[in-house]
């Protein structure tokens, strides 16, 4: 889900990625979001994720140990390069991320 600084939704999207862990799904969602905003060229990014692991890994506080996450992490780091010094990634509790959860459920329901 992409919103502007006033909280106006600019775009929502979802897709089924198949069998994946929650952390893999979070990385895929982050990659999709970063690709989607590229044409807007925002001055600053505030990214909120309910996966503490992904936030801490992308922020460089935790190492990426799982082989299946290393390539996804590399893609995120590459997509964030144009925003160096102008991006913040923050962890939010799942209860504060209900709109994103709804999109996940939509993707799963459409697949079922």
CATH class label: Alpha Beta
Percent range for β-strand residues? 5-15%
Give a short account of the largest sheet. Answer: 2 strands, antiparallel
The string of secondary-structure elements, in order, is EEHEHHEH
Question: How far apart lie the N and C ends?
Answer: 22 Å
Poorly predicted segments: none
User: Helix amount, in percent?
Assistant: 40-55%
Number of strands: 4
- By CATH, the topology is Nucleotidyltransferase, domain 5
Number of domains: 1
**Molecular shape:** globular
Determine Rg (CA atoms, Å): 14 Å
Q: In what order do the strands lie side by side in the largest sheet?
A: 1-2
Average pLDDT, all residues: 85
Summing up helix and strand content along with how strands pair, one would put the structural category as alpha+beta
Given the structure, what is the number of helices? 4
CATH superfamily: Ribonuclease H-like superfamily/Ribonuclease H
CATH architecture: 2-Layer Sandwich
Question: Keywords, please?
Answer:
single chain, about 110 residues, alpha+beta, Nucleotidyltransferase, domain 5, two-stranded antiparallel ribbon, two-stranded parallel sheet, 4 helices, 4 strands
